[in-house]
């Protein structure tokens, strides 16, 4: 394949939902073209009779995986029966188990190191576990090569214990392996958290030669890349989270055995389909800051309302050199903690209503009405005018679906966006009962209140592209009514952050002025879960993502 970037999909715990996984892959490939391979970390097989029946169809040849799929070995005693050879083998057409540990090198030169299972605390280790000897046997041949620069991808069932953001979770042996092998990507699985971190250096500044960084887009195998490309520094880079502080210019030596230290049960890094309750929910703390608007006040490790498959593709329109930076998932990265990137540990997934390929729908925190929702891009985009074409296309599908949903319930659909003092696009969707007011009443209310605050809210043609009047970076407020009419205001300064809510909550419309500020409308997590469950059920007949 030369230096042509490989297109890769990655997925976390499938837990036996193999049909759902490959249906999702087919939908993505239909929209985005063919991918070269699919990597699965975490538990691929399930423990129920239904999961066993699903697998039997692929094992017998009645069904075939639509993409070359590589999975890790067993991570629990219950799934050992699915793996006839712990050293790896083809389990079904297009589905290959990599094995207990090793290095897989593809025809393109792509090098994937892998470690399956959980760390064993004793010898001999169960067949679903790895030991310190496995880690040593994997790393030694690579490190003994004087030309070794690192591996392209590291796959592990468990995640690494770091010195900072993962200090309470994971195992030190995987952290030490990641430090030594210098992977450009690292994917891990097993529990119930969907997490990504900033890129980190694989060298110590001014004390070691520059090494490549981690990034997450298209991947050109390292052997085909110019060394200078590998050491370019991405934005927001951090120090290596798996190395202890330097003393007198030397790295502090690890303990004799990486398995000696007492470890806590892991949470996990990647995409999952389960509804497990991680034991360290409270510990995955990220930075918080107060903000205005209807942001979900997300804690870090939520429980999923239902099982989703999150598939991420390594690709980006912004970088052409194939250099990759983040571990665990592959989405555009905000400049700081983001409450709306689906990849972020800040996201409280019990509010999620629907997940598409590029966008998702979530219940608004402190909503004006019980069915007040947000439409958001999965990746990090600040506003509608910043969206890539494929994201715009799916956002329009969500808008169409939610308008039909509102109409079926006798409500007018009002959408608005405030691109001001926010870092991630939130398209607010507020259903307004038809008997309350007409579309003209809603338009007049926005116009009147804007005029009262010396703001010139312009009416723009229904089919006008916002990019024509608001180039990326322009602060603005935008409203879209159920008739397709659009109102636009280019924000200059001191824009009232709750303006959209204040208009809709006014006596002329919903007549709930006490709910104008989302912070005054807080509910308990249990109430939010019940509310989200109801909206999810009501919206399902209109949810195209379910069909995909």
From TrEMBL:
Organism domain of life: Eukaryota
Domain Cwf19-like C-terminal: 333-439
Region (Disordered): 233-303
Domain Cwf19-like protein C-terminal: 453-544
InterPro entries linked to this entry: Cwf19-like (IPR040194), Cwf19-like_C_dom-1 (IPR006768), Cwf19-like_C_dom-2 (IPR006767), HIT-like_sf (IPR036265)
GO CC annotations, alphabetized: post-mRNA release spliceosomal complex
GO molecular function, one term: RNA lariat debranching enzyme activator activity
BP GO terms, sorted: mRNA splicing, via spliceosome
Bias (Basic and acidic residues) ranges: 241-254
Family label: Belongs to the CWF19 family.
Protein name: CWF19-like protein 1
Origin species: Labeo rohita
């Amino acid at each position: 394949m030369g230096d042509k970037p490989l297109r890769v999909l990655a997925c976390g715990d499938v837990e036996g939902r193999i049909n759902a996984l490959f249906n999702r892959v087919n939908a993505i490939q239909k929209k985005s073209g063919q991918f070269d391979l699919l990597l699965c970390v975490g538990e691929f097989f399930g423990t129920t009779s239904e999961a066993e029946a699903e697998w039997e169809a692929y094992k017998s040849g009645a069904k075939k995986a639509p993409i070359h799929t590589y999975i890790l070995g067993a991570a629990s005693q219950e799934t050992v029966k699915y793996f006839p050879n712990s050293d790896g083998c083809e389990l079904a057409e297009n589905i290959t188990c990599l094995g207990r540990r090793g290095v897989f090198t593809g025809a393109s030169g792509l090098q994937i190191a892998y470690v399956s299972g959980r760390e064993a605390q004793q010898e001999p280790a169960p067949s679903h576990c790895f030991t310190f000897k496995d880690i040593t046997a994997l790393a030694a041949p690579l490190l003994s090569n004087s030309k070794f620069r690192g591996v392209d991808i590291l796959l592990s069932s468990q995640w690494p214990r770091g010195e900072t953001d993962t200090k309470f979770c994971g195992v030190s042996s995987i952290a030490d392996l990641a430090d030594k092998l210098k992977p450009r990507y690292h994917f891990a699985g097993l529990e119930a958290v969907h997490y990504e971190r900033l890129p980190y250096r694989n060298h110590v500044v001014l004390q070691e030669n520059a090494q490549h960084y981690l990034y997450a887009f298209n991947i050109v195998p390292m052997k085909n890349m110019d060394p200078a490309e590998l050491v370019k520094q991405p934005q927001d880079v951090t120090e290596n989270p798996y190395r202890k502080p330097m003393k007198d210019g030397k790295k502090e030596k690890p303990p004799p055995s990486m398995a000696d230290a007492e470890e806590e049960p892991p949470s996990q890094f990647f995409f999952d389909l389960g509804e497990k309750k991680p034991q360290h929910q409270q510990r995955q703390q990220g930075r918080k800051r107060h903000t205005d608007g209807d942001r979900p006040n997300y804690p870090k490790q939520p429980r999923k309302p239902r099982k989703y498959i999150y598939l991420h593709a390594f690709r980006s329109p912004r970088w052409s050199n194939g250099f990759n930076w983040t571990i665990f998932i592959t989405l555009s990265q905000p400049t700081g903690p983001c409450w709306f990137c689906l990849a972020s540990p800040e996201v409280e997934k019990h509010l999620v209503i629907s997940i598409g390929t590029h966008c998702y729908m979530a219940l608004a925190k402190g909503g004006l009405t019980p069915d007040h929702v947000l439409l958001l891009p999965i990746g990090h985009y600040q506003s509608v005018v910043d969206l890539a074409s494929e994201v715009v296309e799916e956002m329009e599908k969500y808008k169409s679906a939610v308008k039909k949903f509102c109409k079926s319930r006798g409500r007018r659909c009002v959408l608005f966006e405030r691109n001001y003092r926010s870092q991630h696009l939130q398209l607010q969707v507020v259903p307004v009962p038809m008997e309350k007011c007409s579309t003209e009443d809603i338009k007049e209310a926005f116009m009147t209140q804007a005029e009262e605050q010396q703001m010139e809210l312009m009416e723009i043609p229904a089919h006008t592209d916002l990019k024509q009047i608001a180039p990326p970076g322009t602060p603005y407020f935008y409203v879209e009514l159920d008739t397709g009419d659009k109102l636009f205001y280019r924000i200059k300064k001191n824009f009232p952050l709750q303006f959209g809510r204040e208009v809709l909550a006014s006596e002329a419309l919903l007549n709930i002025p006490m709910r104008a500020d989302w912070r005054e409308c807080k509910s308990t997590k249990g109430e939010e879960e019940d509310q989200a469950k109801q909206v999810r059920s009501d919206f399902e007949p209109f949810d195209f993502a379910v069909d995909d």
